[in-house]
Amino acid sequence: MAKSLAELKAIREKKLNEINLRHGKNGYRVVVGMATCGIAAGARPVMVKLMEEVQAKNLVDVTVAQTGCIGMCKLEPIVEVYDSNDEKVTYVHMTPEKVAKVIEEHLVKGNVVTEYTMTVVDGKVIDTTVKA
């Protein structure tokens, strides 16, 4: 049975909202690298867990979205968190298990979870994350 244009637009809007959880612009924007390298490293379960946790905690000031290649394949899965001033924190080697701590500490309390971030020294990425 064919769908009307209005029905198709409603379905599209619903799916976009499910994928991106687009809410307020004054809070955090969380971006997950979903290129082939990220997906191969486990980004899809990380993205799903992020969306579930944001929704479960009713964090209406958090937007979850996906992007293509971030350019640091060996550090995937990568999650970038932008605050309302567009300041970025990059979390690397993310897992679904690490998501809960990032949500609670960073997105709820405003404290960066430094043990999951990368460090840049003299323009070089130094991987100092705790592997889990």
From TrEMBL:
Key words, A-Z: Iron, Iron-sulfur, Metal-binding
Keyword Zinc: no
Top-rank taxon: Bacteria
Keyword Transmembrane helix set for record: no
Molecular function via GO: iron-sulfur cluster binding; metal ion binding
InterPro entries: Thioredoxin-like_sf
Protein name from the UniProt record: (2Fe-2S) ferredoxin domain-containing protein
